[in-house]
Design goal:
49% of the residues lie in helices and 20% in strands. The chain contains four helices and two strands; from the N terminus they run E-E-H-H-H-H. The protein binds zinc ion (ZN).
């Protein structure tokens, strides 16, 4: 079964999504797995969305890149 996780960027308030399987989500939340153990093939930005979904703290790739440029 497919599942779509979302996390809202704390800087621009835009929601980002990542498509995963419900099975993997259960694995991640219930078995307390690390995101890189459950989804070793996902890129870092997609993993960030999943972490944001879980923790409520998320910054999207655009804002992350922008803030990095300003420094
Ligand atoms: Zn953003």
């Amino acid at each position: 079964m497919k599942a779509r996780l979302s996390a809202t960027c704390m800087t621009c308030n835009e929601a980002r999504y990542v498509n995963v399987t419900a099975n993997d989500v259960t694995h991640y939340l219930k078995d307390d797995k690390l995101v890189q153990d459950v989804w070793p093939d996902l890129n870092a930005w997609d993993r960030d969305i999943i972490i944001g979904f879980r923790t409520g703290v998320f910054q999207c790739q655009d804002c992350w890149t922008k803030e990095g440029d300003e420094e």
